[in-house]
Amino acid sequence: MANVGNANIDITAASAQAKSEVSDFFGFLKKIRFIATEVMGGLAIFETVKGALSGAYKATSGANSAMEQYENTLTVGG
Questions:
Q1: pTM over 0.85
Q2: What superkingdom does the record give (predicted)?
């Protein structure tokens, strides 16, 4: 085999750039994690409010139904 030549590669510069890219990528992942955590927290609050409003609606409609039945009883009985 013939020796064609030598190649020198500056690994230090490539390594520093790779470290920077990896660091940036992990920073991006941390931001995504933060956003996902905030979204999940927002969804939990939304579900809590939705449950409270649903309970209030059921209580109100149940009270209205009971009042209507009571009025019907008074009307039929009177």
A1: no
A2: Bacteria
